[in-house]
C-alpha cells in the first residue's frame, strides 16, 4: 500500500518512465474484474468503446462467494441487456426480499422478475466474464496497478510487471481498499467497524450444525455448497485484526462459537468482512471515477453490495461512452455522482440499521420483534421490499410525471413488426424514444444516430411497486440504463431539452 501511494505521488518519475516506453492504449481502463468492473466493461463495449480491465487474479475461478444472490432490479438490468436467462438457468428463485431477519414476499410486485435469485458470486462473475469476452473486452490478468499520472491527453498507468497503459479515463472498481481511490486523493469518510466476520468456502470432516445461529458473539452460519464445499460465516470475538485471515483464525473462531472447528480444511477462499461503513466523498475526480465497493462499503446485510455496484456500472457506462465519443460534454459525468451517491447513502443507512438489529440482547430482540410486526403490514412491506429489491430507485430529474426518473416497466408492446418487450428494445444499450400515441410533432432526425424511435401500442395502466397505478403517457424517453428521462405526448414539450441534456446537442 505504501509503495503504491509513494509511486502515485511521484508523478515526475512516472512521467519520465512512461515517456521511455511504448504504452498500450485503451479509451477506458477499469481496475478490478469483479461484478462491477465486468458489468462496466460490457456496457462500454456495447457502446463501441475500447475498454480493458486490469485484474490481479489469474482467472475468474478464483472469485469467492461473498455475495450469494441477485435482487429483482439487478435481474431486470441483466434482462435489459438480454443476458438474464444465463443467470436464471443457474440460480434458484426465491420470491423474497430481506431486511434484518425479516423476509418480505415480493411475488405481487408488478415486474417480470418479482423474486430474488440465489446464486453464488463465483457463478455471477463467470457468467459476466463470458459475456464481456463475447463483446471483445481485453482483460489484463495477474496484474496490479502501481501508480498513475493524469495529463491533458489522458492517464498513464504503471502495472506491476513494469508495463504501461494509457487511457482517456480510469475507473476504480477495485474494492473497499481501492488503490485507485487512495492514489486519486478522494476522501472516504464513514464509520469504523464494531464487528468482524470470517467468510470461507472450505471442506469439513464432521457433520456441522447447519443453518443460522445467533448468540452473544454475533450471527454465524454454515450452508452446503457444490461438492464437498461448505460456506462458513462466523463472527470473531474481537475486531481489529489486520492482514489476510488464516485457516488457524477460522478454526479458532469456529471453536469459540460451536466448541469445535468441525475439522475445517482445504479452504477454497477465505476472507474477512466487517460492518465498517464508508462512502467516497466524490465518485469522480478529473479523469478518475469510482464504482462499486471502491465508492462505498457497508456490511453485507440484505445482499446490497453487488447489486449497488452493478447498477453503478449501468448508470456510468453509457454516460462515459458518450463523453469519450465526444457526443456529450464532460459535465454529463457529474450526473453519475449526483444520481448514484444518494442511492448508496441510503444503502449505508439501511445496512447500519440492520447491524444494530443483529445484537442479541433482550432490548434489541424486542425491537426486532416490533420490526417484524411492522413489516408484516402492507404499506411498510411494499416500501421496504421496494427499497431492498432496488425496484423503487428514483433519480431526481425535477418536477413532472410520476414516472420521471423511475425504472421503465417491461411492458408487452404491440408494434408493426409484431409483439415486443420494452427490455428487448434496450438490449443494445441505446436510448429509446417510445411513442405510444399519436405521431409526435417533433423532428428526431438530429438525434437519429443516437436515439431509436419506436412506435407501439399498449393498453392498460402501468404499475410501479411503490406508487399507485398511473395512466400510460403518450410517449417516454428511456435512457440506456432503463430509467425514464422524459414523459410527454403528441405535443412534446421539453423533449428537445431532455435529448440535449442526456444524449448531446443536436447535430443540426
From TrEMBL:
Gene3D superfamilies from the UniProt entry: 3.40.30.120, FAD/NAD(P)-binding domain (3.50.50.60)
Gene Ontology molecular function: any one: FAD binding
Keyword Phosphoprotein (UniProt): no
Entry protein name: FAD-binding domain-containing protein
InterPro entries, A to Z: FAD-bd (IPR002938), FAD/NAD-bd_sf (IPR036188), RIFMO-like (IPR050641)
Pfam family, one: Rng_hyd_C
UniProt organism field: Mesorhizobium helmanticense
Cofactor(s) needed: FAD
Keywords, alphabetical: FAD, Flavoprotein
Ranges for domain FAD-binding: 27-350
Keyword Flavoprotein: yes
Top-level taxon of the source organism: Bacteria
Amino acid at each position: 500500500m505504501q509503495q503504491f501511494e509513494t509511486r502515485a505521488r511521484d508523478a515526475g518519475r512516472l512521467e519520465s518512465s512512461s515517456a521511455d516506453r511504448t504504452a498500450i492504449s485503451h479509451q477506458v481502463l477499469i481496475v478490478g474484474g469483479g461484478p462491477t468492473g465486468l458489468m462496466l466493461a460490457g456496457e462500454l463495449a456495447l457502446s463501441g468503446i475500447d475498454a480493458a480491465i486490469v485484474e490481479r487474479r489469474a482467472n475468474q475461478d478464483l472469485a469467492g462467494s461473498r455475495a450469494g444472490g441477485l435482487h429483482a432490479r439487478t435481474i431486470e438490468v441483466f434482462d435489459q441487456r438480454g443476458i438474464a436467462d444465463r443467470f436464471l438457468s443457474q440460480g434458484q428463485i426465491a420470491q423474497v426480499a430481506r431486511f434484518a431477519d425479516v423476509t418480505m414476499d415480493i411475488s405481487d410486485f408488478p415486474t417480470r422478475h418479482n423474486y430474488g435469485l440465489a446464486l453464488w458470486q463465483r457463478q455471477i462473475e463467470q457468467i459476466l466474464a463470458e459475456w464481456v469476452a463475447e463483446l471483445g473486452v481485453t482483460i489484463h490478468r495477474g496484474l496490479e496497478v502501481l501508480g498513475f499520472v493524469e495529463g491533458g491527453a489522458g492517464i498513464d498507468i504503471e502495472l506491476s510487471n513494469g508495463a504501461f497503459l494509457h487511457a482517456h479515463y480510469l475507473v476504480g472498481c477495485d474494492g473497499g481498499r481501492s488503490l485507485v481511490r487512495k492514489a486519486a486523493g478522494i476522501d472516504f469518510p464513514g464509520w469504523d467497524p464494531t464487528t468482524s466476520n470470517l467468510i470461507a468456502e472450505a471442506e469439513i470432516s464432521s457433520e456441522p450444525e447447519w443453518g443460522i445461529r445467533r448468540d452473544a458473539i454475533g450471527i454465524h452460519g454454515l450452508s452446503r455448497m457444490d461438492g464437498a464445499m461448505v460456506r462458513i460465516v462466523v463472527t470473531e470475538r474481537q475486531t481489529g485484526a489486520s492482514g489476510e485471515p488464516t485457516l488457524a483464525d477460522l478454526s479458532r473462531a469456529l471453536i469459540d462459537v460451536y466448541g469445535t472447528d468441525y475439522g475445517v480444511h482445504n479452504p477454497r477462499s477465505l476472507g474477512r468482512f466487517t460492518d465498517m461503513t464508508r462512502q467516497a466523498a466524490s465518485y469522480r475526480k478529473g479523469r478518475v471515477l469510482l464504482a462499486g465497493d471502491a465508492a462505498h462499503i457497508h456490511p453485507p446485510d440484505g445482499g446490497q453490495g453487488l447489486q449497488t455496484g452493478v447498477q453503478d456500472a449501468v448508470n456510468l457506462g453509457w454516460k462515459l461512452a458518450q463523453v469519450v465519443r465526444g457526443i456529450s460534454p464532460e459535465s454529463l459525468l457529474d450526473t453519475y455522482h449526483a444520481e448514484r451517491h444518494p442511492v448508496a447513502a441510503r444503502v449505508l443507512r439501511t445496512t447500519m440499521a440492520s447491524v444494530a438489529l443483529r445484537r442479541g440482547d433482550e432490548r434489541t430482540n424486542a425491537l426486532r420483534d416490533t420490526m417484524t410486526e411492522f413489516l408484516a403490514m402492507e404499506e411498510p412491506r411494499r416500501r421496504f421490499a421496494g427499497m431492498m429489491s432496488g425496484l423503487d430507485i428514483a433519480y431526481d430529474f425535477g418536477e413532472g410525471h410520476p414516472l420521471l426518473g423511475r425504472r421503465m416497466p417491461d411492458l408487452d408492446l404491440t408494434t408493426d413488426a409484431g409483439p415486443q418487450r420494452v427490455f428487448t428494445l434496450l438490449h443494445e444499450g441505446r436510448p429509446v424514444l417510445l411513442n405510444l400515441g399519436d405521431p409526435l410533432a417533433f423532428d428526431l432526425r438530429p438525434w437519429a444516430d443516437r436515439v431509436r424511435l419506436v412506435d407501439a401500442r399498449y393498453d392498460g395502466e402501468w404499475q410501479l411497486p411503490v406508487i399507485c397505478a398511473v395512466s400510460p403517457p403518450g410517449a417516454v424517453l428511456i435512457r440506456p440504463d432503463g430509467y425514464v428521462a422524459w414523459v410527454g405526448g403528441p405535443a412534446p414539450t421539453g423533449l428537445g431539452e431532455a435529448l440535449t441534456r442526456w444524449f448531446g446537442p443536436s447535430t443540426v
